[in-house]
Amino acid sequence: MTHPAAVTDLRFQEFLDSVSSLSLKNGEKDWYNIEVTAAIDGCSILGHEVDPHSGSSLIFLKNSLMLCVPSKGHLAHYPRHLVHCFVDDFRRNGKEENGMVMRAELFSISPSEEQLAWEKKCFSEHEVPTIQASVSRWLRWLNE
């Protein structure tokens, strides 16, 4: 049987490995390794996502999310009960004007300067399963 602390350590290391593989500036890597690591020390990480384009990440904790934005040195915490999920599937009625096939978003009900807006978009049918997998993880977390 796997010890819960070992699973937490493994998920923490998986998060750090994902972040280290991003193309970040040295200061942003240091920020993740020092500031973010200190902020989530001792927390049970259930999962994470990284945005390879922005370098931002989302950390799923038991009852909340942490949004990490290295370009701004911004950490934000969102209680689960304030987080919602929307999915727009444009395949039935034709693609959006900009060619988007599907869009999924995790967002929060919070003051405008503090809102969560974690979004995934795809412009090809081949990318749909990736978004569907993310939505499935999000909904599992939201419904735990």
N-to-C span: 22 Å
Helix content: 25-40%
Radius of gyration: 16 Å
Major sheet: arrangement of strands: 1-2-3-4
Percentage beta strand: 25-35%
| Number of continuous helical runs | 3
List the helices and strands in order: HHEEEEEEEH
- Provide the number of structural domains: 1
The main pleated sheet reads as: 4 strands, antiparallel
How many beta-strand segments? 7
Low-confidence stretches: none
Average of per-residue pLDDT values: 88
Shape: globular
* Class by alpha and beta content: alpha+beta
Overview of the molecule:
- With 144 residues, this protein is an alpha+beta fold.
- The chain is built from 3 helices and 7 strands; from the N terminus they run H-H-E-E-E-E-E-E-E-H.
- The protein has one domain.
- The chain has a 4-stranded antiparallel β-sheet with strand order 1-2-3-4. The protein has a 3-stranded antiparallel β-sheet with strand order 5-6-7, covered by helices on one side.
- The protein is globular, with a radius of gyration of 16 Å.
- The mean pLDDT is 88.
